[in-house]
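Before relying on records like the one below, remember that each one covers exactly one chain. Contacts with other chains, cofactors or solvent are not represented anywhere in the record.
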Amino acid sequence: MRPNFRPVFPARRCRPAGGCRTLPWLGLAVLLLAGCVSEEEAISDSTSPPIGGGDPDSLFLVAPPDATAEASGPTTDVALGEPTADGGDGSYTFSNDAPTGGFVPGVTTVRWTVTDGAGAEASDDQLVTVTDTAPPVLEQPADIQTVASGTRTPVSLTPPAATDLVDPAPAVTGDMPAEGFPMGTTAVTWTAEDASGNRATVTQNVTVTEGNAGGPLSLAAPADVAAEATGPTTPIALGTALAGGGTPPYTITNDAPAGGFPLGAAVVTWTVMDAAGGSVSATQAVVVADTTPPALSVPGPVTRTQSSNGGRAAVDLGTASASDSVDAAPVISNDAPADGFPVGTTTVTWTATDASGNSRSATQTVTITAFVAEYCEDLVSVFADDIYPLLDETEPLRCSGCHTGAAPLDTPNNFAFPNAPPTAEDFDVFRAVASIDSGGASLVLLKSRGGLTHTGGDRFPDGTADPDYRALEEFVNRATGCEPRPSGGTEKVVLGTPYEQLHRIVGVLASRPPSDDEVATIAGAADQAALLALLDPIIDGLLNEETFYERVVEMYNDLLLTDQYARSDRNVSINFGLDDFAARDWYESNYTGTTLRALREDTNYGIARAPLELIRYILRNDRPFTEILTAQYTMVNPYSAVIYGVTAGDPNFPF
């Protein structure tokens, strides 16, 4: 069961340059998700001097912004940027005192100077910070074995070599016991530290055994290993090989790949060399298997209207994505019907399969509603208000100047609309050309995508991804399937009996049959006016039932499609733009595995459902519906509240 949502007031976004201000951002999110607006914000910096229009007698200089770079060596080249100047006589020569050989680690002040043609000067400073955060590189020493010479055995160890980009001689230290090594295996940690305090460590194993000195040199490899793949290559703890006989001490090495083991079976060869130069080898088997299926994310539900020609509907399902720890490109397939979708709801199963044969499936629903013909005369205003302005657009250029405007081109099909606004006759021209079938497609749609050597080329290069093209495609479907209104003008709308009207109203708003009390309420209606008066309180009651709120949320999800993210177990920062929230990666930083995936799901649900829950909250609390745009608060569940840095419910949540 999902946690409840609650409003949090106010929703604030802070920016260093512009301070903190309250934003009606949830309402804005509704518009953004619906594709109605784009967010353009400009925050001015009132402390910056104006560029241009300055006093000609007052020369001044603005240095480039402060720069920060990671050290690439003892000295580092840094791109400083360009200064700007104003005032003076307008003729500027710039210079600076940046070191020619590059910047050393630390903070350096660069003094910029501008001189104009009259000899006036002005200066400004820029801070350049070079950081050294890269640790030294420390070589891995071979493990050593020797035979005990007492309770503690002295072993001479050679420090491994270390290199660093900046520091030519990093300090290398080891934590070997000063009094000698005890029986068994002791891990010696070698640490290399550069002048900036960056450290790198490696471990060398020193094993002291009772041994059988004087016997033949021998080596026992560690036990065979089987492991689950964690990536294209997998790091594996191999264990420790044990040597005996010969002349101690022993140096033991192996040929395991430094970057980890690839998928499949491998043989690691261990080799021991004693103090007398003798050596023997032993082998260890390593098997890396991949039994983990890929992660799969599929598109959300799709709803389309059947073509005016009837039959099955071609549907753009969207794109599924898959990831796998081993296979960089899992194969994705689905079982969508090749000949299109029938009227009703069809479940499409997507499957992602990796190179090891592991697979995962997920489903998507496709709903096709039956086409219902409209009266052609009712579409004239739709053509004038919605479609003609789309065709007449100039940014981006659609059909303006060729098919719209005061003097459109003369085309073989007379596809021209000189009237603004267009008339009923213009709609008839559009409908006639749209009804021309060219290889199974409307001539209007085919030409608009650059087909049939259209002189204007492709006017909708993004195809169905462009909402304007989808609007044109839908209107072509409506226009080619519309019917003339029956002549005579005597048609009459039949509302039905009082019970039939009540049944339809209760069914639409509450998804149930009328109650006995509701039926009894309308029993005395003498005419339609009386019935409407009796229906008023019934409808008020229906609008307060939970089913009504669910229906409204469903309708708005069909518009906003936010539920496509509500069941995602991906990182919330991938699904949503959360750069302004410092806690956006809180779960990623504190949890792993199945717990992290569960937290991701609940957090994605909280953020994705927030616009819909805002609408539900406004309706349930009888607030002005304009608050979907103007609300100074947002809706959160306990999981999304953590991301936004607010408290919702238990202050100790989530654990």
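The chain has a mean pLDDT of 84.
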